[in-house]
Design a protein that fits this description.
disordered N terminus; 5% strand; 491 residues; 4-stranded mixed beta sheet; mainly alpha; 61% helix
Length: 491
């Protein structure tokens, strides 16, 4: 690499401290090196190319294909960090976009691209950090799904839009006081922020979004009109209507995750569960037949809850419709549910012998109770989803789907006492009430167990783990309640 300096005279420190600039002399453009970049994220390389235009130096450009070039042995040999864009020079490689841009801006000591004093340099560095962390991160969270570079997560996009507005508000306040970001001349700070904002102005900043930021818009247009900018960025047509997310491009699709090995254990437990039921003592002829039916119903309810929870999780990750239904875990659980439902009639046919007329009524009561539990679970899952989308309190309760499910739950609860009155018939043998009580306790155990699992998942998402979750007051309370219920099981 060749660095071009001004003629001898005051040194760089003296010249910058006194706010002086050395005279410029006409000279042939000097080649600095080769800039490797990814076309879809060219804005990261553009700031170095524009800086080269201002400083009168030459950069060769070479597109980098992450699917092919990243696997080449010589890539990591010369660029151990594996970061792109990177600048390949005679003395080695410089990687990351800001490092390359700083290198190009500083290669001429006789220009003001990196400021006219050490204070200017500090201000420029401040704006470069602002660009990377306060603006680029949220803006690309919003723009990348539109460009097909990553999946859209609506909740994340909504938060990102708010963060972009906050960053533009900071810039608006600064540009009310100065023509450019650190004064009356263009610096690397202006170049970096114009390049970062280009895709936003072109794709998602519609007129309503731009309205509160007139100074930022004027500054962007003034910079873009300069030949150093326009020769690299081309014509930038301001967005009239915000673009919507598109499918992720093949080269940017994340690798498929391997299925967890823990899942077969859950299936094994589900298959092993029916073996425990034959231990019940056959005091009455109808008792052994009723046990498999209740067990299958409980398994149907459990698998149904698991499907609903999984679908809510996949929807939160950005999947929808056919993609959710086509997910391997969803298909596996649905097949398991269908098998259980196919087994249900065989279990339900056993109570047909007329040992006691109260048996059908008990079944009906259990069915209503199962529906109450299912609708309750659905309400909780829906409220959790709405809360994740930013709704809270009264807005959640007033949501149409929540109100519909609550009304459905109230209707089912109104039916429950009528269903529960049937076992009082005197024709039922002494063992029947005990079975009903056992079923009620079993349902409560299931409900509290589900509540513990949901709470633990929530605490884990909040950053707690291991002993801290087990020591949480609500977890300890529910575990105590679960132990009390298990102690009530008929022996």
């Amino acid at each position: 690499a060749v660095f071009v300096s001004a003629p001898r005279g005051p040194n760089r420190r003296q010249r910058r401290t006194r706010g002086l600039r050395a005279p410029l002399f006409r000279m042939a453009p000097v080649k600095i090196g080769t800039l490797h970049f990814i076309e879809q994220t060219a804005y990261k390389a553009d700031k170095a190319v524009i800086a080269a235009k201002f400083n009168g130096v030459v950069l060769d450009k070479k597109a980098f294909d992450p699917a092919k070039d990243a696997k080449k042995p010589d890539f990591l040999a010369k660029n151990p960090l594996g970061k792109v864009p990177y600048l390949e020079t005679d003395m080695g490689c410089i990687c990351t976009s800001n490092a390359v841009a700083r290198y190009i801006a500083r290669c001429r000591a006789d220009t003001s691209l990196y400021g006219r004093s050490f204070d200017d340099e500090g201000q420029i560095d401040t704006w470069l950090e602002f660009c990377s962390h306060e603006l680029e991160v949220p803006l690309m969270t919003w723009v990348y799904p539109v460009m097909g570079l990553m999946e859209d997560v609506p909740a994340a996009t909504k938060d990102a839009q708010a963060d972009v507005k906050k960053a533009l508000t900071t810039m608006e306040a600064q540009l009310k006081a100065t023509k450019f970001l650190i004064g009356d001349f263009v610096t690397l700070a202006d170049i970096a922020l114009v390049c970062a904002l280009r895709e936003g102005f072109a794709r998602v900043f519609d007129p309503d979004f731009r309205k509160p930021f007139p100074k930022v818009c004027s500054w962007f247009e003034a910079c873009r009109a300069m030949p150093q900018f326009s020769s690299v960025l081309g014509a930038v047509k301001l967005c009239a209507k915000a673009e919507t997310p598109q499918a992720v491009l093949p080269a940017f699709k994340p690798p498929e995750r391997k299925e967890k090995k823990a899942e077969p254990k859950a299936e094994a437990k589900a298959k092993a569960a029916p073996k425990a039921t034959p231990k019940a003592t056959p005091k009455a002829a109808a008792a052994p037949a009723a046990a498999p039916s209740g067990d299958v119903a409980a398994q149907i309810q459990s698998v149904g809850d698991e499907i609903r929870t999984l679908k809510a999780k996949l929807k939160a990750e950005g999947l929808s419709g056919k993609k959710i239904d086509g997910h391997d875990d969803v298909k596996r659980l649905v097949a398991q549910l269908q098998e259980l439902k196919a087994a249900a009639p065989a279990g339900g046919a056993a109570p047909a012998p007329t040992v006691a007329p109260a048996a059908p009524a008990a079944a009906a009561g259990g069915d209503v109770e199962a529906q109450v539990k299912a609708v309750g679970d659905e309400i909780r899952a829906l409220k959790a989803k709405l809360k994740a989308e930013g709704l809270s309190g009264k807005k959640i309760d007033a949501h149409d789907d929540v109100k519909r499910l609550v009304a459905q739950l109230q209707e089912l609860k109104a039916q429950a006492p009528a269903a529960g009155a049937a076992p009082a018939a005197p024709a039922a043998p002494a063992a029947a009430p005990a079975a009903a009580g056992g079923g009620d306790v079993e349902a409560k155990v299931k409900a509290v167990g589900d509540e513990i699992r949901e709470l633990k998942a929530k605490l884990k998402a909040e950053g707690l783990s291991g002993k801290k979750i087990d020591a949480h007051d609500d977890v300890k309370r529910l575990v105590g309640q679960l132990q009390e219920l298990k102690a009530q099981f008929p022996k």
